Records
---
Amino acid sequence: MTTRILMSGNEAAARGALDAGCKALFAYPITPQTEIMEHMAKELPKVGGVYLQVEGEYAAIYMTYAASLTGERVMTASSGCGLALMSEGISYCHAADAPLVIVDVSRLGPGIGTGGQHGQSDYRMVVHGGGNGGYHSIVLAPADCQETYDTVQLAFYLADKYRIVVMVLTDFMIARSEELVETRRLEFGPLPAKDWALKGKANKGGRFDVHRGGQTWATTVDYFTEHQELYRKIEASEIRFETYKTEEADFLLTAYGSMANVCHRAVDLAREQGLKVGLFRPISLWPFPVTELRALARKSGKVLVVEDCEGQYVDDVRCAVEGQVPVHLLGIWGRHNKTAWGVIHPERVLEEVTSLYGK
Amino acid sequence: MVSKTNEVKVYGKPRMRTDFPLPQCAGCHGPLLGKIISEVLEEMDLDGKTIAVAGVSCCAPGRLGDLAWDVMGGAHGPTVAEAVAIKRMRPDAFVIASAGDGEIGAIGIQYFMHAMLRGDKITTFMVNNACYAATGGQLAPTTLLGTVTTTSPYGRSADNEGYPLHAAELAAHIKGVAYSARVAVYSPAAFQSAKKCIRKAFQKQLDRVGFGFVEVVSGCPTNWGVQPTGLGKYIEEKMLPEYPLGIFKDVDSIA
């Protein structure tokens, strides 16, 4: 019998982590992420896990990094400026091939922004990285509470499979929506043993491990070539996306996360009017479904990106489409009012589609 | 070869010391700290359960594989936070953090303070050589007033750069701290006394009393511009008046 529980997207992220066997959360409160911490604070002690509200996001990422080197599944969560503070630490995690999960509940705007209201402007920082040195995190963007729960479990699996940082990018709308979520531990397959974990050499037959980042002076270039090989392997196996009514479509909407839900409804509205509109939703933002998006864009002939910020995801779409078809953007100016609580409604998306359709 | 059973080994390198070449400058006191830590860990039979976090500083022992222990090379600053996380994940491991005065006293002082406030049950070493040594002798929080460094070309002034950090005295005022001492390794007597303090600091972690802290006054011939043979005189005349050796806190329980 399946269990379905009414929960928010943030609670879904926390429950997904716990059901994946996450044993620690080190984090600092920030809206709109805090409910993840609040749930973990209650639940982790019950399963013998480690929960610690730390002195800032720097400490959160470095503690998560160190904890991951003990071989346990661990995570942290943040938003906007908090994630920006973690950038250096994320870079260190990549240098040391530390497998861990970071949930980012996107904020809007630079600096303190809107103080944690809705928006999708963490995209560039999460997908293209704020840290130094050149790295890729796997980035997954669920669109609802169930998918958030499932995706966090997948994130832990991918982190362990590739020894890499996996980021789950949600936003206020997903985090604060409540839905019935079916809870069960997902099985993804076997994983390599963590024989590199720090547990004291007496527990490892006298062998000791030195973790100080992948680069040494003698093998600097090897670090980069090995990681490029890893990235190509991930690109070949971990592309995830969803399409909706794209067969015979002659107009392509594309959006990720909560804006994909808005576009989903806009497709239905357009179809009611006889407009052959389809939707492409990337789930993995890195690796990005470049060829799949390009093929659909070419077939449709026209692309409209919808994202609730000034335009960040649109850059990746333009890069994928390579100028072969026009790419338009409906950004934050599409909100129904000018406030921090304004929303881009499906009707507004339809209006934009109509103005571009057939031209 | 004939075995000479009446011979007793009285001195040698610690078992933990690997063949990895020491990267420090000739005369640096840093490797002596690694030596004491190794000796005490071996005497207390702790090396097998030790997990160390060695910071980004030229004197943090064991970062490069020069000591046979499970070790994480910390980032510059959060070494103490990283050690805290490892101890929380593996409470039965013996966890050591070691870093320089720049790391613990400047960029990482937040992690240092909060680990002490929480009374995290780890042992932290701060190497005080009054400069940023790995980057070539810049001003550190511990640089003595008046000292010329590459980034204080007119000498450290109280007006501009403020006063030297007294980390061991600071730690002693914080409730979560079980042990705080300042030691040095410039002479055999200082070395032996440092060893006693380090053993005591380790015992606090084993007894789960609280945070243990040992500040180590360490000679840096390269950046001080002093011959290795002159380090003892320099330390006694310049460093110790500002940084007196001693035990500033030693409690068996924190109520």
Note: The mean pLDDT of chain B is 95.
---
Amino acid sequence: MSRYCITIDAGECIGYGRCVDLAPELFVLDGGTATVVTAETDDPAALDAASECPMDAIVVIEQAAA
Amino acid sequence: MHHDPTFWLLARASGLAAYTVLTLSVLAGLVLKSRPFRRLRPATVTDVHRTLALTGIGALVLHAASLVLDTTVKVSLAALVVPGLVAYRPAAVAAGVVAGWLFVVITASFSLRKRIGVRVWRRLHWFTYALFGLATIHGITAGTDATQPWARGLYLGALGSVVAATAWRALVPPARKERTA
């Protein structure tokens, strides 16, 4: 199992909300843009959110579990 | 005096080009929103959408400049930005001026979204429907070529595809990506 570290480039986020649709437990829309609720997770939905972001604003770093 | 038709032809061609590229940009935006083609990467569609919009602005600038340079219809610099200053089909041309404003403001708002806030930017984006409607009316009612069968095909095709894509947006929820691994 992998762990995923999630960050959002706040300057790029346009509040599209696709990440919140795909991974509501990881992201939330706050003040019009998305923020990370859970910065570290083993939920692969983080990868879906990153690949489906229309602005490429989500960076997910995958770490192999120790 | 001999009348050189270069700018008049350029004005017509660039107007049709601006409308065509605007339509493609609107369709790309709707494809991004409702995801009918699931294999397309959203960030790539965003790039295509933005590039088409900027290309449309380029064609719009050419349309405006060639209308000022041409002498068939008298269009002053002020008439490019103030609706109602052109004697030729005033309402039809005014629709084009307002559409031009909307096109520029909506496209520029993307770069200004940090200053105006993403919520304002998103609200502004809804005016794209007004922009497309006005541009269609302008093309059909002011366009010299609008009665040509190919031009009718262009307008009907553009209108039909945007209406269909909007209906898809409204009626079909965006597909969720299925995880295969």
Note: Residues 99 and 135 of chain B are 6 Å apart (CA to CA).
